[in-house]
Structure formats: C-alpha cells, structure tokens
Design goal:
There is one protein chain. This protein is mostly helical. It has helices at about 5-10, 10-20, 25-40, 45, 55-70.
Amino acid sequence: MDLAARRRCGQLAAAVRCFFRDELPRHRLWACEIANTFGDPDVLPALTPLLNDDDGHVRKSAAQAHQAIGARS
C-alpha cells in the first residue's frame, strides 16, 4: 500500500502523530516531511509544537509543512 492509500485509510495520520512525539530528531523531521507532502489540517495541532523544537532542522521542516498545509486548505 502506498503512502497516499495509507493516508486515505487513516494509517498515515496515526504514524505521523507517533513520529511527532519521538525522542529522535530525525523521526520528528520525517514526520514534518510526511506532513508537508500528505498532511491535512488535522495534523496541525501535532505539528505546531515542532515549530519550537530544540533541533533547527525540525523547526525549519515544521514551518515548511505548516505553510504547505495552510496553502492546500
């Protein structure tokens, strides 16, 4: 099953929410990148705290995802 299909059945949102809370910055970065590509406004509450993440790469990716989701909605 591809990512778009997983998104439609709700599995993607659950996976992204798990990664948003992960202790590894790389996983939080992946969550932001997935949200940037496939995210809907329903992931914004989980994404917003990452705008103030300790890791600069995560903050930058979170901001890009937030902007991309806003532009799509």
